[in-house]
Design a protein that fits this description.
Length: 140
Amino acid sequence: MTDIFDTIKDIALNTAKKADMGYKASMLKLSVAALNKMLESQYRELGTAVYKMCRNEETASKEASEKIAALTVQIDGTRKRIAVLERRIEYILGLVRCPDCGNTVKMKNAYCSACGRKLAAEEEDVFENENQMSIPKEDV
């Protein structure tokens, strides 16, 4: 009888763990969507600045160049934040990317299902620390 209760307990714990992982992945996906929206806005602003510079509508070309440089840095930062969140989502879902072809495969796979490359043994990831899973308010 104790074995049945232990089995039920294990099933309940595994179900709760999977639900928690799904919740975390969903929250990160929402953050990625918000960052993608911000990225679109940054690209529009960059395009407007480049257009104005090309049309000589801005009085000082140096100011336009500085604005474009600043927007480029912002865009690069946003893209990096998106990449980090996407890696966190993959980690939560138990996925890794093949270093050769970029295909997403399960962590437990020994070989890539797309290109056949032997994958490294499961390594400790930087996202194991629960504190690193939190998302800064500016990302949301």
